[in-house]
Amino acid sequence: MSPRNRLPPWHEQLHLPNGREVLIRPIRPDDAGPLRAAFPLLQPDEIRQRFLFAMKELSEEQATKLTHPDPRTEFALVVAEPLAPGEALVGAVARAAIAPGTREAEFAILVSHYINGMGLGRQLMRRLVRWSKGKKLERLYGDVLEHNHPMLQLAQSLGFHRESANSPGLVRVVLDLH
Ligand SMILES: CC(C)(COP(=O)(O)OP(=O)(O)OC[C@H]1O[C@@H](n2cnc3c(N)ncnc32)[C@H](O)[C@@H]1OP(=O)(O)O)[C@@H](O)C(=O)NCCC(=O)NCCS
Predict the structure, then answer these.
(1) Which of 40, 71, 120, 126: CA 20 to 30 A from 10?
(2) What's the pLDDT at 178?
């Protein structure tokens, strides 16, 4: 993958190994429609790994929340087609949200099977870490199903350690940001 041109902050156009051009950029309100439309194309396992339970659809309310991050406490990136928001298909979403009253953020990420295995999960996680450091947070953490080897591997390779998630079947992966 190779970065292209000069783009606004947190934007990067990438050429994937399979020939696709994609844009990593902050999520936009107009992404709500494409996100809801693409949700049924996800595999049940992907949805369970991301949301930690089964979901048949992304409700309008959930899509609105996801696409309107509060810039003081939330950050969300997508990997999308390099088209106008609203027209662009969205293939991945990664977000971090500061837990109220703490200096810690929780992350969640989903790179759909159409574009996984090409380095995008790592790229997105690195950006969540960069945003968290920019906010001077102490820790970035996420709760991961204990059999979700790809995410556990990815987290470990980025320096996250494991803690108990206080919930059976879950592992909390934590990165100390200092
Ligand atoms: C986990 C997930 C984000 C990885 O995204 P991705 O774009 O495929 O990841 P990358 O291509 O950047 O790979 C990064 C690392 O992840 C790990 N990884 C990815 N796919 C893997 C697999 N099938 N088996 C084992 N490890 C894997 C590896 O450590 C890999 O590093 P390497 O390429 O140097 O070996 C993606 O599979 C996903 O969204 N899964 C469903 C949702 C989810 O699990 N979310 C996490 C909980 S919030």
Answers:
(1) 40
(2) 87
**Residue pLDDT, tens place only, 4-21:** 568 899 999 999 999 999
Q: How far is CA 141 from CA 17, 93, 98, 104, 120, in A?
A: 29, 16, 10, 7, 19
Q: Whose C-alpha lies nearest to ligand 1, atom 31?
A: 154
Report residue 142 as tokens. Answer: 């996420």
Does residue 120 line the site of ligand 1, with CB under 6 A?
Answer: yes
Ligand 1 lined by 50 (C-beta under 6 Å):
yes
The pTM score is 0.96
- Tokens 């295995």 locate to 117
Torsion, Cα of 139, 61, 42, 130 (10° steps): -20
Q: Is 49 in the pocket of ligand 1 (CB under 6 A)?
A: yes
The CA-atom distances, in angstroms, between 79 and each of 65, 67, 121, 128 are: 18, 13, 10, 13
Q: Is the C-beta atom of 126 inside 6 A of ligand 1?
A: no
Report the atom number in ligand 1 closest to the C-alpha of 92: 39
